[in-house]
Amino acid sequence: MLNEALWDAAAVRRQLRRAIIQQLGYESGIGVIDESGFVKWGDKSAGVGHQYCGRVGKVENCQVGVYWGYVAPTGAAFLDCRLYLPQAWCDDRARCQAAKIPDDVPFQTKPQIAQAILKQAWAEDVPMQRGVGDTLYGNSPGLREAIHHHQRYYVLAIGAPHQVMPADHRQIISLHTLVSRLAETDWERLCFRVGAKGLIWYEWQAVRITLANDTIGEQWLLMQRPLDEKSTYIFWLSNAPVDTPIVTFAAVALARHPLEHLLEEAEGQVGMADYEVRLGMAGTSR
After folding, report:
1. Structural domain contains residue 249
2. What is the DSSP letter of 272?
3. 3-state class of 28 per DSSP?
4. Whole domain around residue 148: which residue ranges?
5. Within 13 Å, how many C-alpha atoms sit on residue 33's CB side?
6. Rg for the chain (alpha carbons), in Å?
7. Is 124 a domain residue?
8. How many CB atoms lie within 10 A of CB 146?
9. Whole-number Å distance between alpha carbons of 18 and 220
10. Which pLDDT tens digits describe the chain residue by residue (286 residues)?
11. Is there a domain that residue 282 lies in?
C-alpha cells in the first residue's frame, strides 16, 4: 500500500497538525526539534548511510529523520518530520532515482531541515512561541537567526567551545573561563522531573552575553549542571526577554524530554525503528 497507493504525504501531515493543534494548541506552545536514526541493512533505502545513530549511540548504517514535536500544558505530540538525505545521496542522481527521490530534492543540513519545518509551521500559524533543540541545532547561527527574525524565542543547547562576551566585561572569553568566574551562591536548584529513584534536581544559572558568531546581539546564556557532578555543564542560548525568570528557561530547555519519550515509544512499541520501506517520495506517492 505504501509503495503503490497515491497519497500526498505533506497533505496528511497538514491534516495531522490541524487535528493536534485543535486539541493541544496553546499560545505559548513549545516546538521541539529532534532527530532519530533507524538502523538498516544494505544501501537501497532512501538516505541510508554510515552516520551517527542515536538509538544505538554510535555510527551505524542507518537512516536519519528530523522531527518536530509540540509541547503544551495538556500534552505533547509530533507535528512533522523530514528525511535527512546525506550529501553522497544528493550527488548520485541515479541512486536517488532508483529510490524514487525526485530530482529537485536538494541537500540540506539538519539545521536547514529544521528551519524549513519551522517556516512551514509559521506559515500555518501554529501557536508556538518558543523553540528548543540540542547542540546540533543550537550551534547553527542560521537557525537561531531565523527563529529570532520571526519574533519567536529559542532555548537552544550550544557546545562548550563557543566564545562569548559577558555583559559585564568587554573581553571575549571561553565558556570554561566564564564558568570559573561564577559565584557558587548564584546557582538556583530546580526540579521538573521524577525518576525511578525520586526527584531529579539540577542547578541553573543565567547570565547576559554576546555570542561571537551571530548578529542577534546580547542574549541569555543558561547553564545547567547536576548536583553530583558540578564540573559537568550543559549550555543553552536564548533570545528571550531580559526579564524572563530562570524557571521559565529551565522549563523550556527540559521540554525536549516528552518528545524523547514519544520517540522511544514509537520505536519500541509502534515499530518505527523496524520498518522496511525502501522508497522515498515519487510525485504524490511515498
Report:
1. yes
2. G
3. coil
4. 133-272
5. 31
6. 20
7. yes
8. 21
9. 33
10. 666 778 888 899 999 999 999 999 999 999 999 998 888 888 888 999 999 987 788 999 999 999 999 999 999 999 999 999 999 999 999 999 999 898 888 999 999 999 999 999 999 999 999 999 999 999 999 999 999 999 999 999 999 999 999 987 778 999 999 999 888 888 999 988 787 888 889 999 999 999 877 889 999 999 999 988 878 999 999 999 999 999 999 999 999 888 888 888 887 777 776 665 555 544 333 3
11. no
- Parallel, antiparallel, or unpaired: how do β-strands 75-83 and 130-133 relate? unpaired
In a domain, 82, yes or no: yes
Could you tell me the CATH number of the domain that includes residue 237?
3.90.350.10
- Residues 178, 225, single domain; the answer is yes
Give Cα 76 distance to the centre of its chain.
Answer: 15
Number of folded domains that form the chain: 2
If we measure between CA atoms, which residue out of 221, 239, 131, 225 comes closest to residue 174?
221
Q: Are 63 and 39 in contact (CB under 8 A)?
A: no
Are the C-beta atoms of residues 172 and 178 closer than 8 Å to each other?
A: no
Residues 175, 254 within the same domain: yes
Beta strands in the chain (DSSP E): 30-39, 49-53, 58-72, 75-83, 130-133, 153-158, 163-166, 173-174, 188-195, 198-211, 218-226, 234-238
Beta strand 153-158 with 130-133 is parallel
How many CB atoms are closer than 10 A to CB 182? 12
**Maximum Cα–Cα distance across the chain:** 63
Both 258 and 140 in one domain: the answer is: yes
